[in-house]
Amino acid sequence: MSIEPLEPKHIRMFHDMALKEFGGLSGEHEPNLIDSLAYKPF
């Protein structure tokens, strides 16, 4: 079994979905952090 990495666009999509469902602040505190962390384990 292999684990597929989540692409940054998918992480942002999940975040947007959570915001619509639960509320909160949009945007990113550190814009490049998601991009760098998404592929770090791989």
Q: Name the average pLDDT.
A: 89
Q: Report how far apart the termini are.
A: 15 Å
Helix content: 40-55%
Please give the domain count.
1
Task: Please sum up the structure shown.
The protein is mainly alpha-helical. It is 50% helix and 0% strand. The mean pLDDT is 89.
Q: What is the topological layout?
A:
Elements: H1 8-22, H2 33-38
Features:
flat; Type_II_TA_Toxin; 42 residues; mainly alpha; 50% helix
Overview of the molecule:
The protein has 42 residues and is mainly α. It has one domain (8-38). 50% of the residues lie in helices and 0% in strands. The chain contains two helices and no strands. It has helices at 8-22, 33-38. The mean pLDDT is 89.
